[in-house]
Specification:
elongated, single chain, 11 strands, 60s Ribosomal Protein L30, Chain: A, Alpha/beta knot, 307 residues, 4-stranded mixed β-sheet, alpha/beta, 30% helix, 7-stranded parallel β-sheet
């Protein structure tokens, strides 16, 4: 029976005997000679905490205050609902107490969302299936202030009501608040949903104006604007899609000036109630104005002969 020879006993061909040059043979890729020491992560010392640089985004995008737990959120909804921006519920929790809290939140016209448990845990733990996101400042209800604005015409008072809708960038909202205070806005109206909350970033962007300007969240922004129109207010909107220019527009003594959010524009429910929709002069190549810039220009045009 034929047997193979062991590897070490194999004979080389006659032509290769005595020839030490093995360049004609290939045994795979040639080995690379490592000249640098291999990286060892364990041997590298970790920097101290106070030596780690914190990015600007970590500071600027500070999150809203989040409160988790059934008792805690229930107390907020019953005693201080104006402080609550949004309530997050665990999806398909099956807990009847959470269903009751959801009804209380909706009764107070607070936006609610159903989310996964891991999202709730990212805000607050433990949370018992519910987390409330809070405003930095409690907002007013329309019932608390409406009499003052209804009586303005009888008393001969000038009033400026600003309306900000669909603004998702907190810096943009903060800039609206800052400009509103500087240009004589009496109150800022915001919708109950579709907006960023009054976060720490909004507070910083307002440069202190948040604490001085009144902010109101009506149960129905559409109905509130309708009531102000019946009370003699001139309802005005700012939008690029119109032929009426803002420049030298004949303003009334009491106005409601509304602006829409980024890439959304003026909501239809506001546009249909407007006495005029005004266009700010703009180069054709420009897409649009930032919401806070548009509001500032509109307020300036109204205020330049009145302040």
């Amino acid at each position: 029976m034929w047997k193979t020879k062991p590897f070490e006993n194999r004979e080389e061909p006659e032509e290769n005997k005595g020839n030490n040059n093995r360049s004609n043979y290939s045994y795979g890729r040639p080995a690379k000679v490592r000249t640098e020491p291999r990286f060892d992560p364990i041997s590298v010392p970790r920097p101290k905490v106070d030596k780690i640089a914190v990015s600007v985004g970590d500071v600027e995008n500070a999150p809203q205050v989040a409160v988790g737990g059934i008792r805690e959120v229930e107390e907020l909804l019953t005693k201080d609902p104006a402080r609550v921006h949004r309530v997050l519920f665990r999806h398909v929790s099956g807990n009847p107490r959470l269903y009751t809290l959801q009804k209380i939140a909706k009764k107070n016209h607070i936006h609610v969302q159903q989310v996964d448990a891991k999202i709730l845990d990212s805000y607050a733990t433990p949370n018992q299936g519910i987390v409330a996101l809070l405003h930095e400042k409690g907002v007013l209800t329309w019932d608390e202030v409406k009499q003052e604005f209804y009586e303005a015409k009888e008393k001969g008072l000038r009033k400026v009501v600003a309306v900000a809708t669909n603004i998702e960038d907190p810096r943009n909202l903060g800039a609206c608040i800052r400009s509103g205070l500087a240009l004589g806005v009496d109150i800022l109206l915001i919708p109950s949903k579709g907006m960023c909350g009054i976060t720490p970033t909004v507070s910083r962007a307002s440069a202190g104006a948040l604490e001085k300007l009144r902010i109101c969240r009506p149960d129905s922004l559409e109905a509130t604007i309708g009531e102000l129109k019946l009370a003699g207010y001139q309802i005005l909107g700012l939008d690029a899609v119109t032929d009426t220019s803002l420049a030298d527009f004949p303003f009334g003594e009491r106005i409601v000036l509304a602006v829409g959010g980024e890439d959304v524009g003026l909501p239809p429910f506001i546009r249909k109630q407007c006495d005029a929709v005004l266009r700010i002069p703009m180069k054709p190549d420009a897409h649009s104005y930032n919401a806070s810039v548009a509001l500032s220009l509109g307020l300036y045009e109204f205020a330049r002969k009145r302040i």
